[in-house]
Design a protein that fits this description.
By secondary structure, the chain is an alpha/beta fold. The chain has 2 domains: 3-76, GMP Synthetase, Chain A, domain 3; 98-353, Rossmann fold. It has helices at residues 3-10, 49-65, 110-123, 140-143, 171-174, 185-197, 217-225, 239-254, 286-292, 305-313, 317-320, 325-346, 374-379, and strands at 28-34, 37-43, 70-76, 98-102, 128-132, 153-154, 157-158, 161-163, 166-170, 206-210, 230-235, 259-270, 277-278, 297-303. Strands 4, 5, 8, 9, 10, 11, 12, 13 and 14 form a 9-stranded mixed β-sheet that branches. The model is unreliable at 367-391 (pLDDT under 50). The structure holds adenosine-5'-diphosphate and magnesium ion. Residues 110-111, 134, 137, 139 line the site of magnesium ion.
Length: 391
């Protein structure tokens, strides 16, 4: 019996919910052969007991097939997270946690981050949905390899698509290719509400939401519609990008959304040929901003050509190159993010009561300039007041 035989046998064990095997994901940590006794150690990232059991059973069967009669398969899993304890208005109550991914400006890697974190969370055993709420630039379908795939309609509800273990829905999947819309404030609010109300998401542990860039109606509407568990800001290290991410962090504070940290994207460059890391956009610029807002840098993601090609071809790096440095950083960021979500829930969860619209009865919120809470007044940079024509 050789290690190679054992390994190729284990390649027949797919990770539950995915099409990829446990060897490919790098979960097989140790293979020990002592005479006829084979001991295999598998570290999984999922805390669901049924995942561990299924892997153990299938691995034992596969090892038998290649002649191992005396196999010990131990599967190590992290402990089960607590359920959400959030309160307040929630128009999507079957979703336990909402993770809002925001950025001050476009093009900094918000969608790339959302995609890879969502898949990483799913690989770690969470039931994950990914909502592409970036109505101005819905790129998630392409990045998830779902371009042109139309969702099924059930009654008057829409079934989410599924890719890489994640449920996905995007405005892009509902629009014709290349079609553009001009969004008014009130339309944005309606669209966000519909995404939450009219999509048949499963019972999800979390919904990762790729927001439009900036701090406007979409952010406010989302925060008022569901209790957002945690907010992430994606930035690049240049000063000009950081100025905008300050606004994004400030918005989270005003909306009472706990800060999960900053993802510093395009932080350095890893040369594909040598693996050497170079500094391109500057370094050390994000740290003071994180400190200023009492949060931290959740991860530094380098510029890696395979991140871009992965995005363009619908083959996300965490899934297709789990051994790469960048994939490992996404996995670690997802772990730390989830630890924070668990902690927030253990501390009593979040509540969005304080940011509900305070429009007097009989007056439309739209006709008074968006929801006129203090949060709205100071965070909304795009005014919806008067222009929506729904009074
Ligand atoms: N770390 C990275 N390395 C290489 N390319 C990246 C990286 N992050 C993002 N990109 C690429 O940059 C472009 C913009 O990223 P995207 O996630 O679409 O930004 P946003 O959603 O903020 O507009 C995409 O083509 C994406 O593939
Ligand atoms: Mg985007």
């Amino acid at each position: 019996m050789t290690k190679e035989i054992i390994e190729s046998a284990l390649m027949n064990v797919t990770y539950p919910g995915f099409t990829k095997d446990i060897v490919g994901f790098g979960f097989v940590k140790d293979i020990n052969i002592a005479g006829s006794v084979v001991t295999v150690t598998i570290d999984i990232t999922s805390s669901a007991p049924e995942v561990a059991q299924q892997i153990k059973d299938e691995a034992t069967v596969e090892l038998k097939k290649v002649g191992v009669t005396n196999a010990t398969v131990s599967v190590n899993a992290p402990k089960m997270p607590r359920e959400s304890s959030s309160k307040g208005k929630n128009i999507a109550p079957h979703v336990k946690n909402f993770i809002m991914v925001s950025s001050g400006k476009g093009g900094v890697g918000k969608s790339t981050t959302s995609v890879n974190l969502a898949i990483a969370l799913a690989m770690q055993g969470q039931k994950v949905g990914l909502l592409d709420a970036d109505i101005y630039g819905p790129n998630i379908p392409r990045m998830m390899g779902l371009e042109g795939v139309k969702p099924e309609i059930e009654g008057n509800k829409v079934l989410p698509l599924k890719a890489y273990g994640v449920e996905v829905m995007s405005m892009g999947s509902l629009m014709e290719d290349g079609q553009s819309l001009i969004w008014r404030g009130s339309m944005i609010m309606k669209a966000i509400e519909q995404f939450l109300r009219d999509i048949l998401w499963s019972e999800l542990d979390c919904l990762v939401i790729d927001m439009p860039p900036g701090t406007g109606d979409a952010q406010l509407t989302l925060a008022q519609s569901v209790p957002v568990t945690i907010g992430l800001t994606v930035t690049t290290p240049q000063m000009v990008a950081l100025d905008d991410s300050r606004r994004s962090l400030d918005m989270f504070k005003k909306l009472n959304i706990p800060l999960g940290g900053i993802i510093e994207n395009m932080s350095g460059f890893i040369a594909p040929d040598t693996g050497v890391e170079y500094d391109i956009f500057g370094r050390g610029t994000t740290e003071p901003v994180a400190k200023e807002f009492g949060t931290k840098i959740l991860s530094e993601i380098p510029i890696e050509p395979s991140i871009r090609t992965g995005g363009d071809t619908g083959k996300p790096i965490v899934y297709f190159a789990p051994e790469s440095e960048t994939a490992k950083r996404y996995m670690k960021a997802a772990e730390e993010l989830w630890a924070q979500v668990v902690e927030i829930n253990e501390d009593g969860g979040v509540d969005n009561d304080a940011i509900q619209p305070t429009t007097p009865p009989g007056v439309s919120a739209c006709s008074t300039g968006g929801a006129s809470t203090t949060a709205a007044a100071s965070t909304s940079t795009q005014s919806s007041g008067g222009s929506c024509g729904c009074s």
